[in-house]
Amino acid sequence: MYKAVVEEEIPIIGYIAWSFVDNNEWGSFKPRFGLHYVNYTTPELPRIPRPAAKWFAHLSTTKGLDNLNLETVQMGTNEEQEATATLEELHYPEAGGNGGVP
């Protein structure tokens, strides 16, 4: 979108985020493209904001992208990397999983 707005000078008049959280679409939890990462390996199923969540919040509240610096944003990167359940574990209890809840 940055390229469209800034470099190409395309007048964008609206935007919608496809998914608030990671979800099971097309029969799989991958690819993960939600604004919030969901850790399916813990009972609490924490929702961890990605930098895109800050971007979307800024865009929604200011109706613009001025003064937004995503390089200073660090949200949940360690916990994202620690979520290691496989798709088989999430979907098939007989494969050693129970829906992503330990």
Automatic annotation (TrEMBL):
Pfam families: Glyco_hydro_1 (PF00232)
Hydrolase as UniProt keyword: yes
Keyword set, alphabetical order: Hydrolase
Family annotation (InterPro entries): GH, Glyco_hydro_1
Protein name: Lactase-phlorizin hydrolase
Species per Swiss-Prot/TrEMBL record: Phytophthora citrophthora
Entry's Gene Ontology molecular function annotations: hydrolase activity, hydrolyzing O-glycosyl compounds
GO biological process terms held by the UniProt record: carbohydrate metabolic process
Highest taxon in the source lineage: Eukaryota
